[in-house]
Amino acid sequence: MTTTSRAMLALMAMATISLAPTAYAEPDGPQPVAAHGVEAPLGSVPWSQVGPGWMLGMWSPAPGLHTGESPPPGSPTWQTAAMTLYLVDPAGGRYAITTFPPPGDGPSPRLVDWSGDGTRALFATEEKGRTVMTEVDLRSGTKTPFTVDRTDVTPHYTRPDGKALLLYKWKGSQPASLERVDLDGNHQLTYPVGQDFDGYLSTPDGTRLVLGTATGLALMGNDGAAGGAVPIAGQKDCTPLRWWDAGSATALARCESPAGSQLWLVPIDGGTPTALTAPNNGQHGPDYGDLNAWHLPTGTFLQAAGACGVVFLAKLNADGTTSRVSVPDVTRDSVVVVGAHGGDLELKTRAGCGSGESLIDYNPAAGTSTVLLGPPVNGGGVISAVPYPVERQ
Asked: In which domain of life is the source organism classified (predicted)?
């Protein structure tokens, strides 16, 4: 697996979720959900209704531009515009949680996770040999920063409630590693993973980890105690991507073999792994590799890798190959799957004539797409998005 593929998998596949997020009382009783395209204040969030189908989206008012195109006079720019964290309801209403100052010429904060208790969002910014983490209280918009003296890790909340962070370094010039730190950035545990460690999943209760290995998957306790191996015959360099079933008994994994990369369904406590996709050697486009998958009532949809760094939406065929999916009103080659809810997929891509990206709800059964955030609903562009915690599996 290439370093680029590992980086894409690390960003797309890490998940830390909760099965029972905390509900918060609303002083004046349940509030109505904001209608499509309506921006409502933080104080009107109907917390008792926040759940599956909701998303967090980081948005910039800077207009999307084509290569070589100049912004309209007086319009905000990426360097000078403040960025807003929105809570987006399933109907497409939005609630401004907090803003971040303009990044100038430096890096902007990356939205990386939503805590399993539903109350906090995690951002990361790399600067001067360290990673600055910022935790946002979603109920108040309060930001709390802390630092980790590393710049080569992807952070995510621990499960089930996000009381600590797991810092994952994917394989590159140095072996991969996994470390747990508290919410002040203090070291708690370095997991004894092997040199062939390649990604992880946490069980919903947080008591066990599922690790990618050279020959399949392996189990490990949250305390670092080694568990059993789960080999996948004929495969190597396996990476667990997400839980495939509601009971979190079967993991979706991506593995390599002499025939090419392939997605597998792997029962972690016994049972024979089964191939989900046909081997893909990356030699016959447009699908040069399958990166992730979601099963909906209308079929199995995949995040597929195309040429020149493009990723797109595909659908699984009966023989394990894929066919590219044309999403209505999408005008960009790259389509990033944020998550799935019910029979719909949540996508980040470009809709309309500008180059600013939008957050889109795509209904394959109806063949329709609805813009939830970004142009043409409120302009600018969506930088990143994460789904409600229980849907990050």
From this structure: Bacteria
Which two three-digit tokens encode residue 305? 């890798």
Number of domains in the chain: 1
Dist. CA 385–CA 123, nearest whole Å: 11
CATH code, domain carrying 235: 2.120.10.30
**Contact in structure between 193 and 176 (CB atoms under 8 Å):** yes
Contacts (Cβ under 8 Å, ≥6 apart) of 337: 12, 292, 294, 301, 303, 313, 345, 346, 347
> What are the tens digits of pLDDT across the range 75-113?
888 889 999 999 999 999 999 999 999 999 888 899 999
Domain hosting residue 9, numbered range: 3-67+75-391
- Mean pLDDT across the chain, nearest whole number? 89
pTM comes to 0.90
Specify the length of the chain in residues.
393
**In the predicted structure, residue 19 carries a pLDDT above the cut 50:** no
